[in-house]
Amino acid sequence: MTYLGGQEMYKSGFIFWIVLIFLLIFASGTLAQYSGGSGTYTNPYQIANVSDWQTLIKTSADWNKKFIMTANLDLKGISIIPIGNSSKKFNGFFDGKGHIIRNADVNMPDNNCIGLFGNVENDAQIRNLGVENITVTGRDFVGGLVGWNEGSITACYTNGSVDGDRVVGGLVGLSEVSSITDSYAMVGVKGIDDVGGLVGSSFYSSITACYATGLVSGFNVHGLIGWGFRDSISACFWDVETTGQTISYGGTGKTTTEMKTLSTFTSEGWDFVGETANGTDDIWSICEGTNYPRLTWQIPEADWLCPDGVGLEDFSHLAQFWMIPEGGNTPADLDKNNVIGISDLILFCEQWLRGR
Questions:
Q1: N or C: which end of the chain has fewer CB within 10 A?
Q2: Whole-number Cα distances in Å, 7 to 13, 15, 278
């Protein structure tokens, strides 16, 4: 039997520990790049803070992975470039889970395919995401959410401002072959050619149950869609008063009053809370006469009464059931313990203070 000498044993042990340390460093770096997950459908990467978003921006190798948001993000003062570009498109799955990205500023006036997402490939999906107070400046193919879209967008919205030259839209610059469903834009849009409140140009795409309300200005501009070719555009609207536009490539122009009227949308098949003729998914909700339709995932649990938002009228609703047996049968029972009490009031105040 042959034994290793002391020097040989020392060398072998040293090499073993060096290799182990490097493996641990590599593994920890891989696991810690987001707030959780592994990028698969069953275990998507978790976007929980600004650092996670910055990691996603700079890690193009992950642009074909699966992501979910677990918190709202405020990107004010953060350097932002689009996720996805002409050389490397976003081809993953991104589910906002009803969360909101606020105060993003994407300022690239000399570049094409500019938006929160720059260029989205045909297998990609973006859904359940709100984008508020965004400022986007680009040249061609510029949108509040996506610059150039070939994938699917579902139950998303934008508000803010978008400025570009050609093919500029409040939600999407160019929609090509993709679908856009149950989404809207309240965005001020400026451009020179093929400019629309929702989409700049639409090419062989399907756009269903969407609307736009923001001011659209420049040259060759339209209320909903700037230009299109062989699309399927159904049950879509724009506000002729707030957009300042009376024509569009597709969709139907309505007055502000009509845009805040439930029957405008249910008559075209939109699925709203409180009706079952158009489905039972309850995708949309509206405070008729005071607000435009909103996605139901936008509605706070404590927002029981119109107008939109958690306020005094909702507090009065909670108060009328305070500590009475019937209170447990109402939506005011936020903690689901069958009585309206202090814990419900605390939850109510938390939603009130959050502003949504």
A1: N
A2: 10, 12, 79
